[in-house]
Batch of 3 targets.
Target 1
Amino acid sequence: MADQVAKTRALVVEDDPNIVDLIRSNLTVRGFDTVVSADGSRALQLLDTEEPDIVLLDLMLPEVDGFELCRLMRERSGVAIIVVSARGGERDKVTALNMGADDYMTKPFSIEELLARISATLRRTRPAPPGDAAPQLIDVGELRIDLAGEQVFRRGERVHLTPTEFALLRELATHRGKLLTHAHLLRRVWGRGYETETEYVRVYVRRLRAKLEDDGGAPLILTQPRAGYRFAPD
Amino acid sequence: MDIASNLLLGRERRRHLMSDIRLHADASAVLAALGIPLTDTARGIRSLSGGQRQLIAIARAMAGEPTLLLLDEPTASLSIRYAAQVEELIAALRDKATTIVIACHDIDLMFRLADRIVVLRHGQVAAEVDPAVVHPDDVVALLSGQEIDTSPRRQLTRLHGLTGRLVAADPSSSLSLILSALGAALASERLCIHLPVGDELACAASIGLPDALLARWASLPVGAAGGPAGLAAATGRPVIVPDARDGWAPFAGLAAATGVESSWSVPVLARDGLTGVITVLRDARGEPERDQLELVTVYGGYAASAIERDRLLDEVTQRNRVLETIREVLETLAGPIPVSEGLGLALQALCDGLQADEVALLTSAGGGAPVCRGSASRGGSQLRAARIRNDDHDKALAGEILSGQKLNGIARQVPRRNGLWHLAVTFAAPAGPSILLAGWRSGPPSAEATVLVEDAAHSFRLALEREQAGIALAEAAALRRSQELQRDFLSRLSHELRTPLTAIRGYATSLLQPDVTWDAESQQRFLARIAAEATRLGRLVDDLLDFSVIELGILRLHSDWCDIKLMLAAAAACLPPASAAAIEIACAADLPVIWADHDRLEQVFVNLIANAVGHNPAGTPVRVAAGRAGRGMVTITVTDEGVGLPADVAAAPFEPRRVRNKARTAGAGLGLSIARGIVIAHGGSLEVLPSAIGSRFAVRLPVEAMRVPTAHENGDTSSGRRAASDHRSRKGVVARGRPGR
């Protein structure tokens, strides 16, 4: 694990000195670079200047709404965002995902769990190494998916997707017409240990639809109630 | 000769002869008293105009203060302007009760000024008429000696004139107008009209009736006892009495005394029966001609329609008043003002509209004794004091009616009681059976009143329902708010508990990782932080327990005699030594020991002092002062000169709240709630006092709260909540009320 994350930089947005110390100590031991901010505007600034690979974001910050900060970060960057919050409600989790978070952790957490989620999220959101030999282009109606370049075009125009969104689209599009269960998608896109986080898939499928489907047009991603999703067949 | 000499000629007093000044002063006074616009009393009479001379002449006549003033053609030779001045003076003199006899030929002047017109022809009194009832044309006819024209054309003209005047006339005078016209048409000067009122006939208008007759005929029974008019009313046929002395029983003597020789009484019939009787009194014996009787009938028809018109007008006025009242009541009750305030106004509108002496709205909540929701009385608030005395009557009456009758919204008359005739409407309101009472002193209520009271009761029922709905809505909103607060509180609490837990679990799992070796410094730091956060968590749990115990009302105190000075010193000692220096404790010399739980009070003051120290810049002075406050009470204030309470805290200082500063040592923002709960459990109070700078809390405690054996003293520590609630019912040692609410 240590070599995988050797050059990784993490931005910790947290105002409790104990948690900051805890996370920083552990990430430093694992070879991360760590930058810390206790306030929102400085966090946004660090996002620009330090170009972190991952953000650990506490939702309850003084003077700023954590959800709003998450949305602003997602607007500026495709950085991996893990929300770390003392609020354990389902609604908070879905809201955070909707605001662009890639993962959501509830306090209190064990350090192993935090590190495992950081690894999984980074793996998912890291760009694939170039020179991959897999089939490169998938055309669906007016949509063109460039798997190698990790780009999506709709009527010739580039659609911006976050890495997690693209990972989900890739998984669906490379299995056209086949039913993919929630657990399958979670395991393949988010990683082992995520199989029960059904809302993740729901939120991300909704986001893909919003970005890629036409209002009233033929659906791109079909819902199989209580089972999973199916990408429009050939 | 000047005005003054002229005025006082022949009446000069000695002093006038001695002094011109006095003469002129007295003359000026006479002119001023009469309102004559001449001030220069030294002016020569010759320089005056004809009108002015006439005014002086009248003034000279009046200077002797006569009871009878004779004026011969007073305005005949004057211009219009001066004639008006003279007429004005005459009118003023008449109003000062001077009898004035004017000889003149000016018919219009006569009708404007005279109360009585005597027509003289060839030195003989030709007629004596009342200008209110005769037509000027008739006076002209009398003057010129013509017979009063009875030709059909003339009669038609008369009728047309009458119609025109009736339309313009005030309804109350229409009967007099008709009688006067009929009198002129018949050349008869004595007439009267009776209208049926109840079982009797009342004289509604009369012309030229002698006083003796008028007095006896003001009210007549229907039938033979009512004389010719009574008989005509009873039979519905004209009653002709050719010889009054003979056929005027029972008024034969009266006929002789008043010089009535014969009479015709003609019933006035409308579609729905008798509306009146017109009686014509004649100076000569004999029967009327057929035409004359018909004339009476024709005029009777006019009278009937006038009476009908009056009745309709009256009805419309009544109806309008009813509608107006209902509108006012509805507008008040449905308007923007709260129902509780609107009731009084609506009741006043109803009382005015009913012309009732009092109205009241009572509700018997849950079927208990009726309670007055509002009342009003004639003339509004001036009689309010008298009304309050009557409330007991109302309540008793309402109680009787409510217990005996259905709530059906129908108005019933109540037999006269406490000097009032009542109408009562009962109806079901949300709060319980309700009753609307209206009372009249003068007599039983009218049919309109019944309708109006029923309508009003309906409106009041709707208003009371609306009020109830409003209350329910407010309660629901309060409940929702309370639930929101609870949810909010839980969410904050969860955060406060998770924060130390996160640190503890995080540090512990860090240390437990098999693949990392921490250096000694890190290990030490992790362990220290685990210990500190565990302590913090423990405090939080203590606070939560205290808070729950207070919320549930089962806080138990272990009271004993407690020295406030020692207790405050102990509280101050709990704070970090660095801040202790800024704390000043001052106790009055006569401060008594109090019966209280030393440890709990110490907790209260640790919290208050720590707040004062912790929320202000380092070194901000904090003063704690304790002293007696009235009978059996002590007050302890904690004052700082710091930044004051944040607005949200000042608004509700004892609500559980979020702790902004996570690094702070203390708990879940429950400190003030708990402190207040503890103080209340001691039978005292904790409040924020207004303060120009900083913040100021005051704790008031009884020296000896009602001493009840505590569970601790009883040796009963196990039976928990039941025992505690027993204590609660005996007051004093357990928390009452709900802190933070």
Note: Confidence is low (pLDDT under 50) at residues 382-387, 658-666, 708-741 of chain B.
Target 2
Amino acid sequence: MRNVSLLIALSAGCALLPAADWPTDAANSQRTNWQQDETILTKDNVKNMKVLWKIQLDNVPQEMHSLFPPLIIEKVNTSGGVKQVLIEAGISDNIYAIDVETGKLLWKKHFEYPTPERRGRPGDPLCPPGLTATPVIGPPNAAGARTVYTLAGDGKLHSLNIANGEDVAAPFQFGYPNGKSYSLNLWNGVIFTTTSQGCAGNPNQIWAVRLDDPAKKVMTYNPRSGGLWGRAGAAVDSTGIAWAPTGDGRYDAANKVYGNGLIGARVEDGELNLKDYFIPSNWMWLQKRDLDMQVTPSIFKFKGRELMITGSKECRMYLLDTKSAGGENHQTPLFRTQLLCNEETDFQSAGIWGSMASWEDSKGTRWALTPFWGPVHPDFKPPISYGPVTHGAVVALRVEEKNGKLQLTPAWMSRDMDQAEPPVIANGVVYAYGNGENTRQAYADRGLADFSPLRIKASGKARLYALDAQTGKELFNSGDELKTFTHFSGLSVANGRVYIATFDSILYCFGLPGH
Amino acid sequence: MNKTSTLAVISLACTAMANGQVAMDWPTIGGDAQRTGWAKVDGRITKENVKDFQLVLKRKFDGIKEKGPRTLAPPVVMGRLISYKGFKELAFIAGGSDDLWSIDVDLNRVFWHKHYDQPASSSAPCPAGITAVPSLNTPFSFAATRPRVPIAGIQLTANNASPRPAFAVSSDGKLHFVNTSTGEDVIPPVNFLPAGAKTSGLTLLDGVVYTTTSGGCGGAKNAVWAIDLNSTEGTVSSVAVNSSGLAIGTDSTIYVQSDTDVQSFAPKDLKPKGTFAGAGGSSTPVVFAYKNRDFIVAAGADGKLNLLDSQSPGSTVYQTPALTSNGRSIRGSLASWLDADGTRWVLAPVWGSPNGSIVAFKVEESNGKTVLTQAWVSKDISSPLPPVIASGLVFVLSAGDYAKDDKPKGGTRAVLYALDGATGKEMYSTGKQVTAPGSLTGVTVANGRVYFATTDNTLWAFGVFLEI
């Protein structure tokens, strides 16, 4: 008995040791996409990465959606011992738990519910039915157990034990059926999500709920225009303000309309209140050309301040202060970059999509990274680049202070990628991928015809890259290893492994063989 | 759509209009088939911001060989095309060398350029190339089903359709059905007019394209023409009449003014409907709905405006006093708009007395009769073009100092004015910004910009600044 207790204690102790987890989309509540605890993969050995395993999941794609960015917890006490567990969410209301060491399925949960009365138009890539929000994993409780919070397609929030998939609390309503929620964010006991595109007739807004509220009161803030489709949902700053882009919409401050901007809302006294907002001064232009502000910001500390970066399909980056985004008139960023891409001002297949990334190197240099789609802007000439960029790339900039003002200084631009997606930084290496997706929505002969079957048929293959974070030099690429594209998914990195999931519901694990 | 949905759509539309984000078309010369010159919605222009108008577009079309007061016309404008290259506001410009340009007006970039390369000789009365301003498909209407125009019995499919086509007549007389995303012909051009005909007033309505020919150019009779794109054969109809342009009533009746009268024709087959004797002249009439029927106003050769009732052909309802007395005249066409109080206005560009002016009338009832009551006369404006109206403002281009032979005098320049539509008070002028005489081809207003051309083949637009 004493030995068993000792084993349990040791086991629990292991679980509480520092671990390289990836508990939420984009790594953390601030959505930096920075894995700070990676030690295995390095600039020198990343070229040796191979597919360690891949698993075909039984998730059925809906429209263009399939699997979402995986979440990883290094040490989970399961009935089979302490395991590194990966949680993968699928659009068809599936949650999969996978043993990272073996690539085998530990458990699966499928959410069953009556078919909602309303859903998006069949064939519309914007409004797939089902689970659309990347789940979030809470911190360990006193016993070391962790909970996966998952929003099913019927709008119910489930709390699952990561060890076995069992409910640890009763599900409760946290949204509308087929409402297209975006990645969940958990900060200080509050879960946030955002909705967009008015899918199934539902409102576009920020949502919040306190997990310790017995009544599970759902709090919302509606900007009254646009849609909040930042890929990684909202990013949360150190004061609990959830920042979310509001997409294509109008700005009319007098009437509390905040489309085409970035809004920040905080839970206060049982309500989700607007605290601040930023609207680009050329918002009318953005709306006219459908160049949505739709990029989840990254929030980070810099010289005693808390800053954030975001962007839009217009293909500029904005540097903002979380204390006063946009200054007194809400339209003055700390810095606005030149156009990095999208000279054509196209609403499709061009511009910045998804989310941002930021990290700090060992010398204290703060970096800001953005992906973009389409050709580089002819006037953007970073000091380091790697050949013509016609399909997309990752751009890295340094956050610098010059003459008392903050700025984003271009450092490098990656090689051409087929529509670069939000990168992840780990141990001095930038992991990026071209999604290979056909993103065309309008055609010369028929105008707007955004139709999933057309796009799926015309899509190619995703490709994973590893780049030197200081220079952008390519260190690795996955060649033709990935067989299909990705759509609105993302990378995860933890403990020497890089994960990416493709449209065919295959999850890939890259890493160093034999490590 | 149920009532709630309808209300929601209207509410959304109104809110968007208030914020200047509804993209409207200027689909044909004169703004609409009635030739009112009235942009009924322009959410960007206001009486408050017109004083801050700026030069927002200037582009010289060097590809046009000839220069003069009629070689470049203001564009038709498509407020929003969701093209394969993104959302665009496009201006379509036809030049005298058989060229058709599509301009991204926000960025002042050529979106596409098409040259039809048709052999044709040119002379002053009979210029070579495209002579009529192109016409767009039925204007986009918020929440409306997008119309699909059949053409000459050719079945449109996903492979040969165009989301928002434009129509143009090249100098060989063929009607082109143009894909506005690319400039390419969607189908082979259709025979419409004799080669070399001088056309004007090209208008698409209910699947029928109308135009007029004049000057006997290319051996073509001076006539009104129609091609019915709904018919299997693409049936062409015509009726001989000397005119300088057509206007179409709300019931699709065609009105033209000859030297001696105003004539009306049935749509499609152009069968004569009626004649308003004594209302002759050399301008294009304007048509508007009033008291549940169409009224027509035509400028007489004697400088008087004739008010005609579409239900009472053969007579003139009311005639104004002569607006000019020194032998000059009312030029081009008229304009009409409805103000927020429901007052119907008619505007006339008058040359002379001493240099020119805009004269505004209210359509009113007096002693049981419908009359035109003069409301205001603008400041002296040299060689005023037919005005256009947006947001309660009257925009009028002074083409400069023109001689009686329609040639600009040396050193003269165009000036664009904005006048208060209710009083005629000057609210804005471009001063000396324009460096050449204005072309006598018209003015376009759409989505916060007022366009016109100058005789050096430069397209200008002044309007509300849009930060890009």
Note: Chain B has a mean pLDDT of 87.
Target 3
Amino acid sequence: MAESRANVLDGAPPMVERPQSTDTAGEGAGDRLYYGVLWVLGFFVLVVAGLIVLNLALVSRPLFAVEGVWDFVKGDDWDPVTQKFGALPFIYGTLVTSLVAVVVAVPVAIGLALFITQFAPHKLAPFLSTPVEWLAAIPSVVYGLWGLAVLVPWLRTSVEPFLGRAFGFLPFFKGPPIGFGYLAAGLCLAVMILPTVVSVSAEVMKTTPEAQREAALALGATTWESVTWSVMPHSRAGILGASLLGLGRALGETMAVTMLIGNSRNISISLFAPGYSLPAVIANEFAEATDNIHIGALAACGLILFVITFLLNAAARWLVTAVQKGPARVVT
Amino acid sequence: MNALASSAPDSAPAVAAGAAIATPKVEVQKLNVWFAKNHAVKDTSLAVQVHTVLAVIGPSGCGKSTFLRALNRMHDLVPVARVTGKVLVDGQDLYTREVDPVLLRRRVGMVFQRPNPFPTMSIEENVAAGLVLNGISGNHAEVVERSLRKAALWDEVKDRLGHAATSLSGGQQQRLCIARALAIEPEVLLMDEPASALDPIATAKIEELIHELKEHYTIIIVTHSMQQAARVSDHTAFFYMGELVEMGATEQIFTNPKERRTEDYVTGKFG
């Protein structure tokens, strides 16, 4: 993303219309003005992001006056009356639901993107990819309603009892089938991030050079092998990037998760259990938070969410470049 | 005349187009290729004898690459392409239902216009790619060395087999692609303007290589360089507007063509 933005900037100056006059000073001034405007616009984004962090930090100061940062992160008490604040259940719930979403969505998305770009008849492909993109246009509160009306009852009566019977020996699938919980929120998030992962992956797959596929085919590869030998190596960095983009979306999703996660301040390894998430606690409590410490605690939750997203993006960037370079530089 | 004699390259006069002395290695009968409504190759018939080099020449867009790609069914992948006619390799038609294009492409190898090594793989992995794809086990290192030697690349890369294939120069990459094609022991090698993206020195190396390879392989090479066709081939086929205008011994095509259009092309009047 940043590269493309940089390219836009690099490419911009030649697009300035050259004045017909021979007044070179005027031309230089025009260029400088244009450049200056772009700089301001570019920095505007940074400034806004910086101000948000600053504001969150300022609002959360009353909390950190009474509670250490580390105590806040690892504490699991949350009681506005006694002014005990610990965000661990929210952090945990946010991470677990997002992880479930990515684990479920990414394989489906890769399969879908491969089918759309490599296997589907050319005339059929748009009929497949367009509905997937529609998924991105559905408001998240509607996803939440769908989750309440369809997903939760289905999980409670069918999926969770089945998983409990079949895989109950795993700690993830223990406990009573409630319906509301990490699994419901995670699955709903999976559907929500699917269009992002599919469309970004498909775009990358489409850029596989035809020569690569032909190389594999000419060596006697089947259609499927030609894909695993050419499209997948070419696209792996892009798919990773797409997955992390999806993960980023899942981390920040508020409404659907708030409606489905159960909103119980609880840390459980079982995915059937209800939990809580950082955005959900902010959305639920901000309206009724009156004292500065409570508000500060909610702002601190926002700050933590910000930090998680930021670290994730940094990791994504690093991973994508590492994968792009490929393994076959110096093997021996 | 027995079959052995006619398989020797110097029995060239006996193996002109359509000669029925020995079963040709590759025989094309009334081949037509359409892309949607564009009739790209028209009613082409020709024969290539074993261990000879056929050069296919003609101006851009004359259908020579399309013709070549029909010989290992690469058009199967293009939804709008339609192929009729027969392509016989050792007397067996490639375009019948029973022929698995995957197995066919093992017997008929292909080298493309631009070097296309697998970019994420090492030199060694690239050469062994065909073996891995076809589930051929055994001593891959030995096959890799043999193939690289045949492609005249071994001495240049033997100390860095684990390096990325993309670290090689364009000419080396193309020879790597030739080694990769040779590793699965094809009988016929199709080359689609293999030197068009290379500099003169790299081109000379590829041409020299073609001379050596024809001892063991039957080669069909598409080229837009008439000099190259004259240097490397035993026979030359001239295509124009999707039609095979003339085919014959290379010397005859360049010195004494029968068709006016061939003469105009080889003397540089158009093209």
Note: Chain A has one domain: 69-325.
